[in-house]
Amino acid sequence: MIEKGSLAPDFTLDSDDDGPVTLSDLRGRKVVLYFYPKDETPICTMQACDFRDAMPRFQGVDAVVLGVSADDVASHRAFREKHDLNFPLLADVGGKVSDAYGVWGERMVHGRPLMGIERSTFLIDEEGVVQEVWRDVDAEGHTEMLAELLDS
Hints:
Layout: E1 12-15, E2 20-22, E3 30-35, H1 42-60, E4 63-69, H2 73-82, E5 89-91, H3 96-100, E6 104-109, E7 112-117, E8 120-124, E9 130-134, H4 142-151
Parallel strand pairs: 3-4, 4-5
Antiparallel strand pairs: 1-2, 1-5, 3-8, 6-7, 8-9
Helix pairs in contact: 1-4
């Protein structure tokens, strides 16, 4: 399980944008890495649109926002285009990165247990160290809290 103060596990995942993204290539910048269950679901869409709307604040503090789910690049591309998202979505189709971050597991959906991603966010500093961890995130208001934390 990834905890505050630990080195963020490095990864390379395909992006819906400009090819693969490698976390260690982003050293020197803060990274907001958020994991979400599925493209085009109501809560995930709300969360993605909140990040979209908050992007000027993240860019003002030189932070990169990356969304990760188990959906493939084609799904991400359609999701991003439909909602005018202004940050990359990464395809963790096999769930290896989600597992490395401890966000892959059984969760309840409509009263039934399913395997999937727990909505979680990791704030990673310029050196690749995890500064904050939020698990089982309430999507509403989350980006505002993150932006305020980064502003301070």
